[in-house]
Design a protein that fits this description.
Two copies of one chain form a homodimer. The first copy, chain A, has 13 helices and 14 strands. Chain A is of the alpha/beta class. Chain A has a single domain, classed as Aldolase class I (TIM Barrel, Alpha-Beta Barrel). At the A-B interface, helix 3, helix 4, helix 5, helix 6 and strand 4 of A face helix 3, helix 4, helix 5, helix 6 and strand 4 of B.
């Protein structure tokens, strides 16, 4: 699966993923009103507003980018109705030719991780039939349980040609609280990184592994060091834009082959129309503002990479 | 919320929670067939079979125990249809007077953890209305992100009188891979435990905190040490029975007041009819086998606690 992502990144010259993390406050008033007129101010109404918002943005940007990364929490907050729109969003993005990174950050003991892996990346057996629950192409995974929690994902990745990105160093301010703790002089996130590289060796797909990792754009020195330690591991990089990471910070997340990293922006793209720079689009043209924000992000990153 | 759980535990003399973690292979053939006859061998059919299985077990044991712990992964593997049955199970357990610990192990950067906290324990605003997405009483939370990932849960716990159990030392064989790493001579899980106790101080509800922790029954020495270090923290203990933990192992997870721990059993209860000890019930009476398994577990734990 990582080779499919790389093909798309190279063809579009776009090592970029758009995070579909819709807060209701990002959805223009008029879209919310339309949805509430049909479904009332209900969970279904909220979910419908989010769906119309997502669909317009996907339609506006799908030809520019290789992949999207819907954050399932933003859908889960609306219960079943929200999760239905998560699924609808995954399906629609795949129809449009986008790869889908399910930002689910699941992870548990072995038998439970297996259920998550099957639900998000594999197929579940029902009598003589089998079905995909959510069917993303990639999922993000939490490493706290050690290999037991990861192995079922590796199995499913091999069986169905899928990929995962395991959390190594997250983008949030307090990520160091546990991740930076020194173990014999080595920070924990580096130990996790070493394991990720090791696990990844068993899941190679061309020059890179189907087992990637997550390293926040907000810790560029750590990203630089980790990049060298895990050369075959694709890095999913959140934290660009709204969280403070700049394109210059991100250059060292890439390998000399110009590959090895994919940069996520969520709020900066999907709520672009709320920013001063794109205010002139107005809320009616929020999706055009998102398209312009993607083009600007691409230009920014290409420039930093000297392309 | 923890005081409600303690009241129930004391009234029933039952520091026990039943894990509703249904694998399709646990559901008796005849129940699966009934569901497939109506809905076909589909995700809906599988979900219906799980629901009928859950309902029968809940009806058979609800008067003996204070709480249940549905593991959301087992539902998520069936996609939306499975998650609908997760919700139905939560709602039904609450109707029966049970407290519900959503075993969701969520956790992310701040804004995302907020969405999870709202979705599972709080209420989401939709226009002038607010709604609960899943509305469990407690949720399990992953600490890898540090305080940013926890704070939104604390906020929601205070606002809606709910509780969380944060992973400290998990029950699986490889939990030590990262959790046992020594930081200046102290294992990481102990550092996490210290933070959990600290966070818990801000969420007290009587003698105990609404912020509990998870410590596996499979590591009794660590449980004993942690018990002393975090006296006001309720410990949710998975790993009894099928995973290998015994009642004697668990005595030291309790405080001198006889409180402070709640022991989970999943497979050992819900798939009891498949064990040699309860085989005589037959698959038609699987729920009666589960009731007997709960009674046996209660006797085992009461005996170990000298009650």
């Amino acid at each position: 699966m990582i080779s499919k992502l790389i093909d798309k990144i190279e063809r579009l010259q776009a090592p970029v993923v758009v995070g579909l993390d819709p807060m209701l406050s990002y959805v223009p008033e008029y879209l919310q009103k339309q949805a509430y007129e049909i479904h009332g101010e209900t969970l279904k109404g909220a979910a419908e507003a989010v769906w119309q918002f997502n669909k317009a943005i996907i339609d506006a940007v799908y030809d520019l980018i290789p992949a999207v990364k819907p954050q399932i929490a933003m859908y889960e907050q609306f219960g079943i109705e929200g999760l239905r729109v998560f699924q609808q969003t995954v399906d629609y993005c795949k129809e449009k030719g986008l790869l889908v990174i399910g930002d689910v950050k699941r992870g548990d003991i072995g038998s439970t991780s297996e259920a998550y892996a099957i639900g998000h990346l594999g197929r579940v057996q029902v009598g003589s039939q089998s079905y995909a629950g959510f069917d993303e192409d990639f999922a993000t995974v939490n490493p706290y349980f050690g290999v037991d929690g990861i192995a079922p994902f590796l199995k499913v990745c091999k069986e169905w040609d899928k990929g995962i990105f395991i959390l190594v160093k997250t983008s949030n301010p307090s990520s160091g609280e546990f991740q930076d703790q020194l173990v014999d002089g080595t920070p924990l996130y580096e130990l996790v990184g070493k394991k990720v590289a090791e696990w990844g060796e068993t899941c190679m797909d061309g020059a890179y592994s189907n087992v990637g990792c997550v390293i926040g754009a907000t810790y560029p020195e750590m990203g630089k060091a980790l990049r060298k330690q895990m050369p075959k591991t694709y890095i999913l990089v959140p934290g660009y834009g709204a969280q403070g990471g700049t394109a210059e910070d991100l250059v060292h997340y890439f390998n000399p082959d110009g590959l090895g990293a994919i940069i996520n922006s969520s709020r900066g793209i999907i709520a672009a129309y709320k920013q001063e720079a794109y205010q002139s689009y107005g809320e009616k043209h929020f999706a055009d503002a998102s398209r312009k924000a993607v083009l600007d992000m691409l230009a920014d990153i290409r420039k930093a990479l000297g392309k």
